[in-house]
Amino acid sequence: MPTTTPPPGKAALTGTPFADVTASATTLRRFLHGLPGVDTVGLEARAAALGTRSIKTTAKAYAIDLAISMIDLTTLEGADTAGKVRALGAKAVHPDPTDRTTPKTAAVCVYPDMVATAKEAVADSGVKVASVATAFPAGRAALAVKLADVRDAVAAGADEIDMVIDRGAFLAGDFMKVYEEIVAVKEASGQARLKVIFETGELSTYDNIRRASWIGMLAGADFIKTSTGKVGVNATPANTLLMLEAVRDFRAQTGVQVGVKPAGGIRTSKDALKFLVLVNETAGADWLDNHWFRFGASSLLNDLLMQRQKLATGRYSGPDYVTVD
Questions:
Q1: What pTM was estimated for this model as a whole?
Q2: 10-310 adopts what CATH topology?
Q3: Catalytic pick from 146, 186, 195, 261?
Q4: How far apart (Å, rounded) are the C-alpha atoms in residues 277 and 236?
């Protein structure tokens, strides 16, 4: 049976093929540069081919409900108010107030100062509260500031922490700094699950995305996540496929299962179902659960609700039948 992520640091790798990988900056760099190079053409062709798979009506209804249950319903704007967060929490608990059979979303995701408000809004519903931290989205702050950000969110009741890696350090080749920062944030997160955001649109190459995925997993991430949603290129089928391959391979070699969260740019039911096909065909059915796969989204939920209503009634309800976030 796969396990959840062990405690951070080298203890997590004891007894695995990676026990000595993080012993020094040199060994970590050697390991990361020794990973197989990514076949760009092959990766994108496979992602495109899987995207053509059709899902029939019965399976489609199941997949839509599954996708709803995997959403981290998100508001990360400077103009966020307590009222907006309370409304978002209410929508997460009852996405379609006219149909109480509609699944809850997995979580609401907010800034640290809104965690307490979100926690109150979702109460004991089972919806998690996730908080971005570590100077999201740029990550340009001293480590002490980032850790304080995390601790504040956890103290306010965050169930999950979404951190951003130091892309500057990564692109400069300082992989050990990135690794050690993730380990420190994991420790500061306590019992909260940790999602590590790579900002794939800034990493430039698929090889870099693969290396970042392994750094995150070696450091004890509970999830690896594509993007903040704040740059031009966010989640794509190809970069998500690459990350799914990474978590699949990591579990095969360590027994440790790590989740994946594509975020940013996934707006339609059609897109979401394509990602679920990627999950099933690449990592496998064990990841088809919101404990292991999430969508970072805001507008996606409304389209899923409209498609769900259409399957139930035979009529397309239109955007006026769902709330505007």
A1: 0.93
A2: TIM Barrel (3.20.20)
A3: 261
A4: 13
